[in-house]
Amino acid sequence: MIKKLWEKFVVWRYIKSGLCMGDMHSYSYMGESVGPDWDKIHAKWKARYIKLGYHPLTNEQWQLAGGYGEEYKTYIRIKKIY
Fold first, then answer.
1. What is the pTM of this model?
2. Which of 41, 51, 59, 62 is least surrounded by CB atoms within 10 angstroms?
3. How far apart are CA 31 and CA 20, in angstroms?
4. What distance in Å separates the CA atoms of residue 73 and residue 45, rounded to the nearest whole number?
5. Quick check: is 16 in a domain?
């Protein structure tokens, strides 16, 4: 039960940080961003997401999703094939 809750939390934080990072990068042409370092935050949650066995989205996919509203949900929770 706790493992499933932890997994849901990690996936939720991974998505949230990915969308924020993508939004930040989509507006980077306007100058330096102010606020949290979303690259660092996303890297932390991405590592935990990968540790759960999922294939991560690319930075370009996050930029399209966070900055431009592109669909991303079909790419979430895809297990890695070894």
1. 0.88
2. 51
3. 16
4. 17
5. yes
